[in-house]
Description:
Layout: E1 2-11, E2 16-24, E3 29-35, E4 48-54, E5 58-63, E6 68-79, E7 82-91, E8 96-104, E9 109-116, E10 123-131, E11 135-142, E12 147-156, E13 160-167, E14 172-181, E15 185-194, E16 203-213
Antiparallel strand pairs: 1-2, 1-16, 2-3, 3-4, 4-5, 5-6, 6-7, 7-8, 8-9, 9-10, 10-11, 11-12, 12-13, 13-14, 14-15, 15-16
Amino acid sequence: MIKAALNGHYGSDVTGAVGTVTLDGGDVKLKASITDACFVNGPSLNGLTLSVEKPASFTIDYNFPNKDVRFQFMNTVRVMERPLNLTYTHWKGENRTALDGTFLIDSANKVSACYGFHSDNDCMLKYSYTHDGLTTVEPSYDFGKNAWDFAVSRRIYGNDVVRASYRSSTKVLGLDWTRTSSLNGSFKISAAVNLAEESKIPTLSAESTLNFDL
């Protein structure tokens, strides 16, 4: 089966598009992603990424513009009869490695951590609590920036999610509204205000994704 997706981002700061074609060969999926950079100055390999993926096991990406390979390996282990999801990622060209882990305490509580091996302080810790399956609260702490982040989201009208967030390191307050459809794709409208600026003029953006079966 071949699936295609088209994602467009429109905003006052950045505007662009990404197209993805996925060939499902059973256990392994082949994926090609292109951005509008492939066609700005005529057809080129700029913005092209090829991927080989086995879900919940591994992903290998090759980025043509950066001539970089990314290896990602996933595994799940049991700790005190609860799942711990681990993801190991290595960027060969950048010589950068990261380890992500998510520990599911129960259906409503989980703790996540991300550690970058290239820096002693590159570590982020996040706690997530979901109340009644509708409201999610996510405080997090970035040890590298010595800063707290906070986000709260609420599911409304079935597939609509409203999310507010604040990053203390950048003093940016954000608000997103996302609607997802299993058939047609999704769209998101976002607004962000930098509270450190005197003008405090919000930036607005919209993002939409369309899914196709070929």
